Amino acid sequence: MEKLIALIEKGKPFFNAIARNKYLKAIRDGFISVMPIIIVSSIFLLVSAVPNVWGFYWPAEINDVLMKAYNYSMGIVGICAAATTAKHFCDAQNRDLPKNNQINFISVMIASLIGFLLLSSDAISFTDNGVSISGLANGYMGSKGLLTAFICAFATGIIYKFFIKRNITIKMPEQVPPNISQTFKDIIPFGVCLVFFWGFDFAFRNIFGFCFAQGVIQVFQPLFSAADGYVGLAIIYGAMSLFWFVGVHGPSIIEPAISAALISNLELNMAMYQAGEHATAVLTKPLQDFVVAMGGTGATLVICFMFAFLAKSKEMRAVGRASAVPVCFGVNEPFLFGAPMVLNPIFFIPFIFAPIANIWITKFFIDVLGMNGFMFSLPWTTPAPLGIAMGLGLQPLAFLLIPALLIVDFLIYFPFFKVYDREKCAEEAEADQAEVAQRAAQKQAAMNAAFQGKADTASVATGAVAQAAASMAAEKKRAAGQSMDEESAGNATPAASDDAAASASSSTTDAAGNPYAALDGRRVLVLCQGGGTSGLLANALAKAAREHGIDLETAADAYGSHLDIMPDFDLVILAPQAASYFDDLKADGERMGVACCVTRGKQYIDLTRDGEASLAFVAQQLGI
C-alpha cells in the first residue's frame, strides 16, 4: 500500500497541472457562480413538488406561480453559465497579457451569451387572438445547454485574446475618454465572435437539421449513461477520493468533466417525476454533496464521531471533538489534516471505498427498491442526513437510506479505526512512560545538587564575602559617575527631556502591551476551494484581533471568485487543498501588489485553532 501511495505521489505534479488547467478552472468557477441559481430555484420546486409525495397537490394557478420562479431561473441557467464561464476564462487569459492591454470581461460575457443563444435556441412564432407573437424556444437554455455554454465561453475568449494580444482593434486618440476608447477597442473582436457563431449556426443547422446544443447532448449522452452505472460511478468517485487522499483536491479535477451531467440529471429526474415516471438518474449534484461526500470527501461523518466518542486515544478524541461541528456541515479539512486521514496508510481502503459503497447503496435503492433519484438541490453545507431527506423530496425510502448509509460507513471504517486507536494508545503510553522517567531523572538531579550544595557550604560563604566587597567598590564608582551625568544634564531643557521620556514610554507600551499593533488596519483574505475551510482561519484571525483590540479585517472566499476583490486586501492566504493554484495566485498578486502565501495541511489546521499563532503568521508574511 505504501508503494502505491508513493507511486501516486509521484504523479502529483501532473494532477496539479490538470487542476490548474485554465479550461477546467473556468468550467469549475463558472459552475460555482451559477450555483445560487440552482439552489434558490430548488426552493420554489420544493414547495411546489414535495407535497405531492404525501398526496397533496396545489391548485393549478398557485403551482404555475411557483413554477414561474423556477422556470425563469433554472430554465436559463445555461445562459448564465455561458456568461460566468466566459468571465473566469477571460480572467485566466488576462494573466498572460500586459497590464495595459487587458481583455474587457464584460464584453466577453455579452459576446458569449449571444453566441450561446445563436447555437441553442430556435425562433418560434404563433398567432394568439389575431396577434402575431414571436420569441425563442428555451428547451436548451437551461441545464441541457451547459456543455454548449462552456464551448461558447472558450471560443469567445480565444477569439478576443487573438485580437487584443495583437492590437487588432480600433484605436482612438488619447483625448477620448477611456470608457469610450474601450467600446471601440471591443468592436472588432465582438463583431468577429458574432459573425463566427452566426455562420457556424447557419452551417450546422443546414447540415444536421437541428441546433448545435441538441447535437452536443446526443454526442455526450452515451457518456452520461455510462457514468450513471455502477462501474462509472465507482471510477468517478473513487478517483475523486484517491486524489484527495494524496493531498490533491479531487473535485477540481473530476467535477468539471461531469458538471453538466450533475445538473441536467437533476432536472431530468424532476421532469420524469412530474410526468408520473420513475426518476432513475443517479449522478446528480446533491448525491455528490450528501451521499458520496457525507461529512466531506471520504464520507468522514461517521469516522469523525468515532474519533470523538469511541476512541481511547486522547489525541484522537481531541481531534474528533474539535472537528465534529465543521464535518457536520461538510467542511472536513480540519479532520482530514488533523487526524490525519490524508496520506495515512491505515485509512487508505475505507477512505476510497466508503464513498463508493454509499453511491452503490443509493443506486440500489433507486434501481431495485423504486426510490426516485435526487430532484432538489440544497447548499453543500447542509448537514448530510438533512440534505439527503430534502434532496429526495422527503420520500419514505429516504428515511431508510440514511441509516443504511451510516451503518455501512461505520462497518467499513470500524476495523481500521480500531487499528489506528491501538497504535495511538501505544504511542501515548510510551510517551507517558518517557515523561515519568524524565521527571524521575529531574528529581534525582535536584537531590544530587542539594547534596553537593551542603558539601560546598564553606566555599560558598567565602565567595560571598569576596563578592560583597567587590559590590561595595562598584557602588562607590557608580555614585561618582552619576553625579557627573546629572551636572551635564542640567544644561538640557525640561521639555526635551519630557518628550524623550514620553516617546520611550510609548514605544515600550506598544511593544509589550500589543505585539500585533502593526496589523491594525490591515486586510486579510483566505481562499480555499469552496469557501468553507477558509472561513475557519478567517474567523480565528478575526477573534484573535478583537482580543488584542486590533482592527484587522478578514474575509473568506472560494478560489476563482477572488480576482475582483483581491486588490482590496494586503495579504491572501491559500488553504492547502487549493495549493495547486498558488503559482497563478502569486502571479495575480504580483500584478496587483498584494502579498500571497500558501499553507500546509497540518499547519493550516493548527492556525485555525490558535489565534495567537495565526496573527503571528500574518505578521510574518507581511514582514512586520
UniProtKB/TrEMBL annotation:
Keywords associated with the record: Cell membrane, Kinase, Membrane, Phosphoprotein, Phosphotransferase system, Sugar transport, Transferase, Transmembrane, Transmembrane helix, Transport
EC number: 2.7.1.207
Molecular function, one GO term: protein-N(PI)-phosphohistidine-sugar phosphotransferase activity
UniProt enzyme class: transferase
Record's catalysed reaction(s): lactose(out) + N(pros)-phospho-L-histidyl-[protein] = lactose 6-phosphate(in) + L-histidyl-[protein]
PROSITE patterns cross-referenced by the UniProt entry: PTS_EIIB_TYPE_3 (PS51100), PTS_EIIC_TYPE_3 (PS51105)
Modified residues annotated as Phosphocysteine in this record: 528
Subcellular localization, as worded in the UniProt entry: Cell membrane
Region (Disordered): 477-507
Claim: Membrane is one of the keywords in the record: yes
GO terms (BP aspect): carbohydrate derivative transport; phosphoenolpyruvate-dependent sugar phosphotransferase system
Top-level division of the source organism's lineage: Bacteria
Annotated Low complexity bias: 492-507
Stretches assigned to the PTS EIIB type-3 domain: 521-624
GO cellular component, one term: plasma membrane
Domain PTS EIIC type-3 positions: 7-416
Positions of transmembrane segments: 30-50, 70-90, 102-126, 146-163, 183-200, 230-247, 290-311, 346-366, 386-414
Pfam families named among the record's database cross-references: PTS_EIIC, PTS_IIB
InterPro entries named in the record: PTS_EIIB-like_sf (IPR036095), PTS_EIIB_2/3 (IPR003501), PTS_EIIB_3 (IPR013012), PTS_EIIC (IPR003352), PTS_EIIC_3 (IPR004501), PTS_Sugar-EIIC/EIIB (IPR051088)
Protein's name in the database: PTS system lactose-specific EIICB component
Lineage, broadest ranks: Bacteria, Bacillati, Actinomycetota, Coriobacteriia, Coriobacteriales
